[in-house]
Amino acid sequence: MKRIATRSKAIGLVSALLMVSGAAMAQDFSEVIDNRQQNFLSIADTFKSLKKAEDGSDSDWETIRNLAIKNADTVGALKGMFPEGSSFDSRSKPAVWTKWDKFESGLDGLQTSFVSMADAAVAQDDDALEAAIKSADRSCKACHRGFRTKR
């Protein structure tokens, strides 16, 4: 009987330690998770503003260029915001880490789309801008399907 009680206490202690270490891991990554979520929200907001600045014959090319460069830089920074173990309490699927090459390739494609938008703004090329916007939209949707959990 004494042996069962001792084993039960040991199991309780191990369970408590696992819960504490799990909470500590979540706390360790809460700042990086918040930062990357804020970056994704910033990209979405900036992209909406960029689309509003695009108006065919009367586009605000300077605004489009500046917003596209801002988003390209933000996407580039995201690559360093997914440390191993930072999926806990985030909207990122485990596939981000198990299929990192594919995830990183998606970020690269999105970044390239924003660079193409900036180039199109400099050239004031409506067709190139429209193609880059469509490319970025496809990249966002593909990434959400493969690497982000639904609410």
What does this 3D model show about the protein?
By secondary structure, this protein is an all-alpha fold. It has a single domain (31-147), classed as Up-down Bundle (Four Helix Bundle (Hemerythrin (Met), subunit A)), CATH 1.20.120. Helices cover 79% and strands 0% of the residues. The protein has five helices and no strands. It has helices at residues 2-53, 61-78, 95-98, 100-123, 126-147. α1 (2-53) packs antiparallel against α2, α2 (61-78) packs antiparallel against α4 (100-123) and α4 (100-123) runs antiparallel to α5 (126-147). The radius of gyration is 22 Å and the shape is elongated. GO terms for molecular function: electron transfer activity; heme binding; iron ion binding. Pfam families: Cytochrom_C_2 (PF01322). This is Cytochrome c.
Provide a quick synopsis of the model.
The chain has helices spanning 2-53, 61-78, 95-98, 100-123, 126-147. It is mainly alpha-helical and 151 residues long.
Layout: helices, strands, pairs:
Elements: H1 2-53, H2 61-78, H3 95-98, H4 100-123, H5 126-147
Helix pairs in contact: 1-2, 2-4, 4-5
Summary keywords:
151 residues; mainly alpha; Four Helix Bundle (Hemerythrin (Met), subunit A); elongated
Give the CATH superfamily: Cytochrome c/b562
* SSE arrangement, N to C: HHHHH
Number of helices in the DSSP assignment: 5
Overall 3D shape: elongated
Q: Could you say how many structural domains there are in total? A: 1
Strand content: under 5%
Structural class: mainly alpha
Terminal-residue CA separation: 48 Å
Low-confidence stretches: 13-26
Signal peptide: 1-26
GO molecular function: electron transfer activity; heme binding; iron ion binding
Protein name: Cytochrome c
Pfam families: Cytochrom_C_2
